[in-house]
UniProtKB/TrEMBL annotation:
Domain (Interferon/interleukin receptor): residue spans on this chain: 67-175
Gene3D superfamilies reported for this sequence: Immunoglobulins (2.60.40.10)
Species: Tetraodon nigroviridis
Protein name, per record: (spotted green pufferfish) hypothetical protein
Key word Signal present: yes
Length: 191
């Protein structure tokens, strides 16, 4: 088998295993070092040393991509909220099985962080940033004192904006009121 950027052995073992167990799918992610190569895959079967039968190219679209959600942690300093977004591990031949390679090392995703007040659904702020690091930090200001805010984040594949992760679990924090007391607010999950 011949591929651009994929070692023949790994790809061949994957296909051989799929044939032996009569599987309809084969995870090719370990064979490619460049995530962009998923956009076009064309496999061929060597019938003899001089004859190869190529399958028709298959163009992948956003429905072929699934991502786990990122995780978020929040810290509050006065009326500023700092959100730390960590990305899930990705399968890649550049990583050993014991090592975590965050998805942001393989692609540079768009990361959207949303902060909502638990008092009003209409009081939400969102920021979308292009991520080029393993961890992303997003800063929010103009938070009202004495309110509880919940944060969620997700990321999307740059070429296919509809290929997005699920939203992270919410992380909530309460700002200090002007009188130095925390307000009691119901728990809220931003959508």
């Amino acid at each position: 088998m011949e591929t651009a950027g994929a070692p023949t052995g790994r790809l061949g073992l994957c296909v051989l295993f799929a044939l032996l167990v009569r599987a309809r799918t084969c995870d090719l992610s370990q064979a490619f070092s460049n995530f962009e190569l998923y956009n076009m895959i064309r496999l061929g079967v060597h019938l003899s040393p001089s004859s190869t039968v190529w399958i028709q190219p298959r163009k992948f679209d956003y429905t072929d991509f699934t991502f786990s959600p990122p995780s978020v942690s929040v810290s509050l300093r006065e009326e500023r909220l700092l959100v730390k977004v960590q990305f899930p591990c990705a399968v890649s031949r550049r990583c050993s099985l014991e090592q975590c390679c965050p998805i942001s090392e393989l692609i540079h995703p768009w990361t959207t962080v949303t902060v909502c007040s638990t008092i009003s659904d209409s009081h939400c702020q969102s920021r979308t940033v292009w991520t080029q690091e393993v961890v992303t930090y997003v800063d929010f200001s103009s938070l009202a004192p004495g309110q509880k805010y919940c944060v969620r984040a997700n990321f999307s594949y740059p070429t296919f904006s509809m290929a997005a992760s699920a939203k992270s679990s919410p992380q909530c924090v309460e700002t200090v009121s002007r009188w130095g007391k925390k307000a009691k607010q119901p728990y809220f999950k931003p959508s």
